[in-house]
Design brief:
Layout lengths: L3 E5 L5 H10 L6 E3 L13 H13 L6 E3 L11 H18 L6 E4 L9 H15 L7 E5 L12 H9 L7 E6 H6 L8 H11 L5 E6 L1 E2 L10 E2 L8 H9 L8 E3 L5 H12 L2
Parallel strand pairs: 1-2, 1-10, 2-3, 3-4, 4-5, 5-6, 6-7, 7-10
Antiparallel strand pairs: 8-9
Helix pairs in contact: 1-2, 4-5
Bound molecules: fe (iii) ion (2 copies) and zinc ion.
């Protein structure tokens, strides 16, 4: 069975996200740890979180995915922005331990003119200060589209971040279908080739989750504009090949398509039908 969910709002509380996922036909979900543009997270409600854990056990949920705020940029030129990234991720990862054994995804960041090499150095500085030996969360680097000065649109860059992180057993990759396609990896007509390249450069065992999004733009456009499943340049046939692929079909998948809840429910049903 496909493990699939979509992005849900954390403002309704944790247990309610689980119930909403079930109502949509999902068995997992993604949520922002706090306002996507940053700011303070709500205080921890352990009863609410424990109710979610119980619900997830009862209904055989797969791992869920917390997403860091978009403003988190560990390789900014600005010291204060880097400090915010450090404080936010450190706090998020401490909080994630109330939901043990799940996943936390972040955008490696934008080097804003400092160069990819410097960007990678700063990203690893962050990871080397926020990860700890006994943490149960897997931290995922998201594959990026390469818009602006984004780091992480090439598999080689993600490999380099993993190499230079001491506790890299805590790291995995979240492959975003829109981002890799916009980044120039042809998952539409050469899925097998892209996965082979991923395996050769990063190692397929690092792949822990998928973001399923179609793209409003063509292969290699470096744009990052998500489209509904089947309505963009990746197309429905490619999504069928992705969710039925022997390597990919067991991974938790998360929709981040431009949809309201009813649209998500339709896409979940469609993808499960393959
Ligand atoms: Fe993302
Ligand atoms: Fe994504
Ligand atoms: Zn995106």
């Amino acid at each position: 069975m496909l493990n699939i969910g979509c992005h849900l709002s954390v403002s309704q509380g944790y247990e309610n996200m689980g119930r909403q996922a079930l109502a949509l036909g999902a068995n997992t979900f993604q949520f922002f740890t706090r306002n996507p543009r940053g700011g303070k997270a709500k205080s921890i409600d352990t009863e609410d979180i424990n109710n979610l854990i119980k619900l997830m056990e009862e209904h055989n949920f797969s791992k869920i995915l917390a997403h860091a705020p978009y403003t988190l940029n560990p390789c900014s030129k600005d010291e204060r922005t880097r400090q915010f990234a450090f404080e936010t991720m450190a706090d998020d990862l401490r909080r994630m331990e109330y939901l043990p054994d799940n996943m936390y995804n972040f955008h490696p960041g934008s080097h804003v003119g400092q160069g990819t090499e410097k960007g990678i150095e700063l990203i690893c500085e962050l990871l080397n200060s926020v990860l700890w030996e006994d943490m149960s969360t897997t931290v995922l680097l998201e594959t990026m589209s390469g818009k602006g000065s984004e780091v992480g649109s090439r598999f080689e860059e993600l490999r380099e971040i993993i190499n230079r992180t001491e506790l890299n057993t805590k790291l995995g990759i979240c492959l975003d279908t829109c981002h890799v396609f916009d980044g120039g990896y042809d998952i539409k007509d050469n899925l097998e080739g892209v996965l082979e390249e991923f395996d050769r450069i990063i190692g397929i065992s690092r792949l822990k989750a998928l973001h399923l999004n179609d793209s409003k733009n063509v292969l290699g456009s470096h744009k990052d504009r998500h489209e509904k499943i089947g309505e963009g340049y990746i197309g429905l046939d490619a999504f069928e090949r992705i969710v039925t692929h022997p390597i990919l079909r067991t991974l938790p998948c998360f929709l981040e398509t431009p949809n309201e809840l009813d649209g998500y429910a339709r896409e979940i049903a469609l993808l499960k039908s393959f």
